[in-house]
Amino acid sequence: MALTLSNIILILTGFQSIIFAIILLAQQGPKKVSNRLLAGFFLVLSLQMAAILAEGFYWPSSNLESWLCLFGFLYGPFIYLYTRSLIFRDFRMSIRQGLHFLPAIGLILLISLGFQFCPTFGFLIYVVLVPYVVASIRSIWGYRSVVSHTQSLSGRIDLSWLQWTILVFSMVLILDILDHVFINQPLLDQLPLVYLALLFLVNGMFFKGFRQPVIFQGIKKADQKWIFLKASDLPLNTGLSEDQEHLLNCLENTLKHDQVFMDPALSLEALAAQLEVAPRKLSELINQHLGQNFMSLINQYRIDLAKEKLHTPEENKYTISEIMYAVGFNSKSSFNTLFKKYTGLTPSEFRKKRPLSK
Known about the structure:
Strand content: under 5%
Number of domains: 2
Number of helices: 16
Order of helices and strands: HHHHHHHHHHHHHHHH
Helix content: 55-70%
CATH class of the largest domain: Mainly Alpha
CATH architecture of the largest domain: Up-down Bundle
Largest sheet: none
Number of strands: 0
Low-confidence stretches: 184-190, 231-236
């Protein structure tokens, strides 16, 4: 069989997957479990590429088609567990987590006994994969809800890159379904769209994932109580008890005078400890009486201070980046996005509109 462009893409995808898996397995640190799960995903992908090539070169195995189906039952658990391992700082692999691989283990036994699985039950791959993809994305949404209520910045611990990866994986899944059920239409040199999508996915996962900071905070399992909680979900309550009024005054004084929001690592837990109040009580006060979550409140104070500095002639000697860091941001993109959201202008446009005299 001739070496086609499709085969070259498969070889390249499989080879890159093996290299990335080796790099991940060699990594040490607090996210060792996450790296191993992602390495497992890449190893499964490389094995599937090898099996597809073997099938194309007429490898003498009557069960090769069934082995190809096996890989589809492994992707879902690896993606889901990898997502959970990034979200929760205390994530550990356990027997309970291992249960996700039971269908694949059962299928290995059936195929080893000569059972022709794929021709009759191959559609179950998609039945299994879709819930894992949905559960992974829901986990990321829940994580973001937790972060907005407990952290003051999201840029350093954002998982948008992972959501991007899962969406690309979903696109590959859709292309694969279309390729097998409906269109089966290759590109140049008999190159299926799904092969190009897989190559794009592998490189995207590696480079986007490795551009993330080495130190990743994650959240605690106990923080799940914040999932899907929004400020709009809690009724605004303008009536304050004496204790609540005292706490609100302390909060405003701490933010206005002590300017604790200038600390980029400020968290709800840290601020609550400073105010000597339970984090949940402080969060409810912010949500119910200020109509905001913790992150939006802190960032509003940061933007207000940035506006003041950008309109102060004495601060003209400082660059916008220096002001950004001074007020508590550590991401230029987050700062620019939020600044324009609150003012309708970019920081540089806002500085140009500074009054000539005060």
